[in-house]
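Progress report, Aim 2. The chain analyzed during this reporting quarter is listed below.
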Amino acid sequence: MNIISDNETKYVKEIQEIRNEINRGFKEDKDSPLTSEERSNFSGLDFFPIDEKYKFICSIHQESDLVKEVQLETSKGDMRLFIKYGELELKIQDSTCQLGVFKVKDEEYYFVPFMDSTNGKESYSGGRYVTLEKLENNKFVLDLNLAYNPSCAYSHEYNCVLVPFENRLSIPIEAGVKKFN
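Predicted structure tokens for the chain:
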């Protein structure tokens, strides 16, 4: 018998509510990356099952040479300026993974673009993004259940940041959104 704690149930409900809101936005918002025809036929994004093992409270390692302005290439070949804020280390499926954390200059927006071994099969071939929630004392919440596709996964009209080489993982991350169509 598998007993689910109240905290796990609450967590699953919270993530499901977020996913429902994402699906509502894809179907109804004027800023949806879907065409009006796609929106009229849209029944929801496909997600991996919610699994709390993909939620981490972590510190970001910052060394003076890690916090710097960097140019990240986009899907249309131009470059965008970000701050490489540092690196975080996670233990996933008995593997230790390091991921670069990027920050939008002059904003409190931290994100991790990443690729893993599900890309091109179960998830979007160009990788996914996950936004970090900043806590106190330089701690962050990284919840891969909230990993999402860049807008380029839905339309070639968008110009999305490509995943840097350092954030390409050899293991599967079976969390977050799956590929579209």
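The CA atoms of residues 26 and 32 lie 5 Å apart. The mean pLDDT is 91. These observations will guide the mutagenesis work planned for the next reporting period.
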